[in-house]
Amino acid sequence: MSALLVFGANGATGQVIVQEALRAGHTVTAAVRDPATFRAVPAEFRAAPLDVVRADVRDPDSVRATVAGHDAVISAIGPAGRRADGLYSTAARTLVAAMVAGGVDRLVVLSSSGARHDDPNHPLWYRVIARTLMKELYSDMRLMEDIMRDSPLDWTSVRPGRIADEPPTGVYRVQDGVNPKGGTSVTRVDLARFVVGVVDDERWSRGFPTLAR
């Protein structure tokens, strides 16, 4: 099992990633801006040690101090609304620099199938939205991916379709860099389990696994 550092651990998807990583037996460090606000993990997931630390991707020193000693970093960082305001790209720059300095090689980030706005498997209406209403958000996601691509790290960018708060099914399709044809969504728990599993899956090294049912 691995020692995982999860950023965005207090978000809707980040919290589930922490839970599923613990369930899988990994040692987990949850990196949040304010540890006092971290929501307690239910006892059923506590199969491995959990530590909660303060680290903010807009504060490089706090990230650098946290990264060392971990086997992999997972970023579930994301804004509360439709505007990224540079959050994805800032996180990528900060994490890449800290990981290179700290000798940590494996990085898995949460992106979106919408990051590829010209995906031929997206319906026309979605491609229009990706280029208009969601343009700023997806542009920053693509910049995040470009920063990782240019780094020496062993990275994976997970691109889910719409994240659905429904019971997990274990049924979804995955393609590299393209949305599964006709696919629209994936459950949050299924996504979290995939993210945790991909940490040790060499098939997705420097890849863009795109998930949808």
Helical percent range?
Answer: 25-40%
Number of strands: 10
- Rg to the nearest angstrom? 16 Å
Number of helices, counting only DSSP H or I runs of 4 residues or more: 6
Cα distance, first to last residue? Answer: 29 Å
Give a quick account of the main beta sheet: strands, pairing sense, barrel closure: 8 strands, mixed
Q: Structural class per helix/strand content?
A: alpha/beta
Using the coordinates shown, work out and report the CATH topology. Rossmann fold
Global mean pLDDT? 95
Number of domains: 1
**How is the largest sheet built, in terms of strand order?**
3-2-1-4-5-6-10-8
The CATH superfamily is known as: NAD(P)-binding Rossmann-like Domain
CATH class (first level) name: Alpha Beta
Which CATH architecture is right?
Answer: 3-Layer(aba) Sandwich
Shape: globular
Percent of sequence in beta strands? 15-25%
Query: Low-confidence parts, pLDDT < 50 over ≥5 residues?
Result: none
